[in-house]
Structures are given as C-alpha cells and as structure tokens.
Amino acid sequence: MLKVSTLQSRFFKYVEPPANSNACWFWTGMHTEFGYGKIYEGGPRGRQLYAHRVSWEIHHGKPFPEGMVARHSCDNADCVNPEHITPGSAKQNSDDMISRNRNPILIKRSQCARGHDLTQPENMRFDSGQRRGCLVCRKLSYAKRSKTHGAQKGC
User: Fold this and answer.
1) For residue range 4-28, what is the model confidence (pLDDT) as tens digits?
2) Is-contact 64 57, C-beta < 8 A?
3) CA within 20 to 30 Å of 8's CA: 48, 67, 104, 138, which one?
4) How many H-runs (helices) and E-runs (strands) does the chain carry?
5) Is the model's pLDDT at 151 over the cut of 60?
6) Where is average pLDDT lowest: 63-67, 88-92, 131-135?
7) What pTM did the predictor assign?
8) How many CA atoms are closer than 13 Å to the CA of 28, on its beta-carbon side?
9) Which domains, from first to last, does the chain contain?
10) Beta strands, E only, 47-137
11) Is residue 90 within 8 Å of 30, Cβ to Cβ?
12) Is 56 exposed, middle or buried (0-12, 13-18, 19+ CB in 10 A)?
C-alpha cells in the first residue's frame, strides 16, 4: 500500500474533480509517452507510478490488485476518476479495445507477419510488458523448439 498522506496531497495538486462526478478527472501533471498521468512516490527521484492507479488506491483504500491492468471505461488515458478505472486482465483490456475500436494499431494491423488473424482475441498474447503478439506463432515456435531440442520431463 502506498504512503497515502503525502502522495495523496501531491496527487490532488494535479487534479480537480469536476462537479459532475461521472465526468473524467483530467490529470494536469506529467504524462508518459502514451498519455497516462504519472507521479513519483516520494518526489521526483522516487519510483514512477501511474496516476490513475494512485487514484484508485486512494479512493478504494487498498493496493491495486497485483498482476492486473487498469481498464478505463471512458477510454481516456488522461482520466484519473476512480469510478472509470476497473482492475482486469490484459486480455480483458485488449477485448475492450477491440470491441470499442479504439486502438489504431489493432485496426490497421489485422494480421501478424505470417498472416494469422489478430482480430480474434484468442489469437493474441501479451508478454509481461503488456506488448501484443501472435499466440498462433508462439505456439508454432514452441512446438518447433520442442521438436528440435526435445521436450523436457516435468515441464
């Protein structure tokens, strides 16, 4: 759990919730290259945190669930309204992007380099950095590696 007192006071320097609680709360502090708000734990030399996750933790009084990504129901990376943020899996977040046609990379790139259909969520995989890739190609690569090097027992 974050040290709420100082982080919370710094957090609210960069956001002013509008009168309409359903509206987006726009982050006025620093942003990542992808447009997400960021704040540093303990000041500028501290660990970088996503502002929307900090908002969720402040308002829910508990840590953001481990291994989960933040799903914005408003599709606005700049929004820190805790009512718009839901923890979920990378696959759920990807399914949200696809169903809402909001990611131009997914729209433009419907196939991987080998021609597998990337418009189907079951064909996509996400690595630990949340980068998208082709699950079909990965399975083929593992099968080829297993055949070449032999499957190890116990795996």
Assistant:
1) 458 888 999 999 888 887 899 999 9
2) yes
3) 67
4) 5, 6
5) no
6) 131-135
7) 0.63
8) 8
9) 4-88 (3.90.75)
10) 48-50, 69-72, 85-88, 124-126, 132-134
11) no
12) buried
